Structures are given as structure tokens and as C-alpha cells.
């Protein structure tokens, strides 16, 4: 019984000695390589941060939105860190071809599963770098219109005057016909005056109204012209430009001011009139 225990103890000791020898050999063989790999990764972290900050500063010149700048700089930082990680794995002796092949297969599967997301991403990059519109501009597309509030890599948000929002996927925008009004819009106010009105006097009154309104832009200059000789009135079209944010409120102010100016100058705004004649037997 004692001999068997001694043999078992001897075997365990031999196993421990072999494990210790293997560990020492591995430490001697791979220890410096692992240490160098860790140093490479550490350098990669610092280089990635530096390149990311430099990229974000460079993107400032392109006038991109802050979230987009941060995302692109983060992508550059990750790519730099990935490059240093590859160098670290090569230093250890890891076979990269099978690893790259596996990553490629996984990436293909992810790409198939996320076609819509990747489509929005590609369209978002197209919008960011071609800049068909910017934040603060008023656009009309896909039957929707509003002021551009946010542009991200995946969608664009339009704000409506009623304080609602429209979120449009970027892949729906690229390739579509879009009307970009910019940061200003032109009003189209029509007012009618009687046929016996002094038109020069009426046009001067309208011009004075526009000059007194702070929402009306001086450049480009407002357009005031006689457009239609209607049945019971001469129609004057008033087309000033205003900021996008004033587009909803400015027409009401201008209409009110024109009515008051016409009343002050005794300029009549005629009502529609119809002359009805009854024909038949006098009896």
C-alpha cells in the first residue's frame, strides 16, 4: 500500500516538474514576444488617440456636423488601433490568414443581415461629403418639407412649423429630386385694388410697409408688381424674402400692415361684384 502511494506521489511530482519546465520554456520563448506585443498595443492606443484628434481638427475645415466629426475620427482611431493589433499578433506568431478569412465570412454575413443599415450609412456619407443641404436650410423632398435640424450617418431630421419632426432614412434621399430653399424663402402675397386706384400710390404704400417690417430682407430686394387684371380688381403681387424661421409669421404681419396702409391712404380693396339682369316678359 505504501509503495503504491509513493509511486503516485512520484508521478504527480514528475507531472508538476514537466508542467513547470514547459511553463519556463514558454515564458522564455514567448515572454519577450508577448511583452513586445503589449508594448505595440500600448503605442497603438496613444497613436490612435493622436490621429483621431488630428482627424477631428482636419474635419473642422469641412464644416461637418459635430456628431459626424466625432464618429469619423473614432473610426480612424479604431483603424489605427487595428493596424497595431495586427502587428502585435504577427510578433507573437499568430497565423493571420485563417483569422482574416474568418473575419471576412462573419463580415459578409453581417453585411447581408444589415443591408438597409449599410445603405443608410453609405447614403449618409454621400450626403455629408457632397452637401446637397445643410443644417438650418429649408428643403422639400419626397413629399415632405421642413427645416433641416439634424444630419446623421443614418437619417436626416426635418422640423415643421407645427413643432413636429420628420425622420427620413438617408437611402431614401440620395438620388431623389430635392428643392433646397436655403436659409431664406420668398413670400407670395396678393392684394387687389380697385380699377380707379392710383397704382403708383398703391405700390409706394406697399413698398413702405415692407421697408418697415424687420422680418423682410433688404437683400435680395422685395418684388412688387402688377400681375393680373381681374374681373373686379387689379391684383398686386408682393414677393419679399424672409428668413426660414419667419416664413410662417411674416405673411400675416404683411397682410395686416397692407390693409392698414391702404385704409390710411384711402385705397379701396374691392369686393367681387356681379351684375344680374332678369330678362323676360314685362308683365
Overall description:
This protein folds into three domains: 9-113, Orthogonal Bundle (Helix Hairpins); 132-182, SH3 type barrels (Roll), CATH 2.30.30; 184-264, Alpha-Beta Plaits, CATH 3.30.70.100. Strand 8 (223-229) and strand 9 form a beta hairpin. It is 54% helix and 18% strand. The termini are far apart. Helix 1 (2-60) packs antiparallel against helix 2 and helix 6 packs across helix 7 (250-264). The strands form three sheets. A five-stranded antiparallel β-sheet has the order 4-3-2-1-5. A three-stranded antiparallel β-sheet has the order 7-9-8, covered by helices on one side. The mean pLDDT is 79. It is α+β, with helices and mostly antiparallel strands and 283 residues long.
- The amount of helix comes to 40-55%
Radius of gyration: 38 Å
Basic shape? rod-shaped
Question: Secondary-structure element order, as H and E?
Answer: HHHHEEEEHEEEHEEEH
The number of helices is 7
Give the CATH topology of the largest domain: Helix Hairpins
So what's the CATH class of the largest domain? Mainly Alpha
| Spatial separation of the terminal alpha carbons | 149 Å
How many β-strands, per DSSP? 10
Widest beta sheet: strand line-up: 4-3-2-1-5
Largest sheet: 5 strands, antiparallel
Kindly state the mean pLDDT as a whole number? Answer: 79
Q: Domain count, please report it.
A: 3
Strand content: 15-25%
Structural class by secondary-structure content: alpha+beta
Question: What is the CATH architecture term of the largest domain?
Answer: Orthogonal Bundle
* Uncertain stretches of 5 or more adjacent residues: none
Amino acid at each position: 500500500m505504501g509503495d503504491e502511494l509513493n509511486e503516485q506521489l512520484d508521478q504527480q511530482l514528475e507531472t508538476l516538474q514537466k508542467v513547470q519546465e514547459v511553463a519556463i520554456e514558454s515564458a522564455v520563448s514567448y515572454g519577450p514576444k508577448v511583452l513586445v506585443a503589449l508594448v505595440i498595443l500600448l503605442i497603438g492606443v496613444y497613436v490612435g488617440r493622436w490621429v483621431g484628434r488630428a482627424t477631428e481638427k482636419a474635419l473642422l475645415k469641412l464644416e461637418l456636423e459635430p456628431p459626424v466629426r466625432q464618429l469619423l475620427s473614432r473610426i480612424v482611431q479604431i483603424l489605427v488601433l487595428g493596424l497595431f493589433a495586427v502587428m502585435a499578433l504577427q510578433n507573437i506568431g499568430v497565423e493571420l490568414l485563417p483569422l482574416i478569412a474568418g473575419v471576412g465570412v462573419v463580415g459578409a454575413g453581417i453585411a447581408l443581415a444589415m443591408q438597409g443599415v449599410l445603405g443608410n450609412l453609405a447614403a449618409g456619407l454621400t450626403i455629408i461629403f457632397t452637401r446637397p443641404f445643410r443644417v438650418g436650410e429649408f428643403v422639400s423632398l419626397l413629399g415632405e418639407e421642413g427645416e433641416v435640424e439634424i444630419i446623421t450617418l443614418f437619417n436626416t431630421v426635418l422640423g415643421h412649423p407645427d413643432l413636429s419632426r420628420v425622420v427620413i432614412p438617408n437611402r431614401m434621399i440620395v438620388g431623389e429630386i430635392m428643392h433646397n430653399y436655403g436659409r431664406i424663402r420668398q413670400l407670395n402675397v396678393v392684394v387687389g385694388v380697385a380699377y380707379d386706384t392710383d397704382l403708383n400710390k398703391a405700390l409706394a404704400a406697399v413698398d413702405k410697409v415692407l421697408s418697415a417690417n424687420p422680418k423682410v430682407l433688404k437683400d435680395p430686394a422685395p418684388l412688387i408688381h402688377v400681375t393680373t387684371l381681374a374681373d373686379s380688381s387689379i391684383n398686386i403681387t408682393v414677393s419679399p424674402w424672409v428668413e426660414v424661421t419667419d416664413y410662417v409669421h411674416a405673411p400675416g404681419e404683411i397682410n395686416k400692415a397692407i390693409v392698414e396702409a391702404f385704409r390710411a391712404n384711402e385705397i379701396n380693396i374691392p369686393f367681387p361684384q356681379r351684375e344680374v339682369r332678369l330678362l323676360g316678359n314685362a308683365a
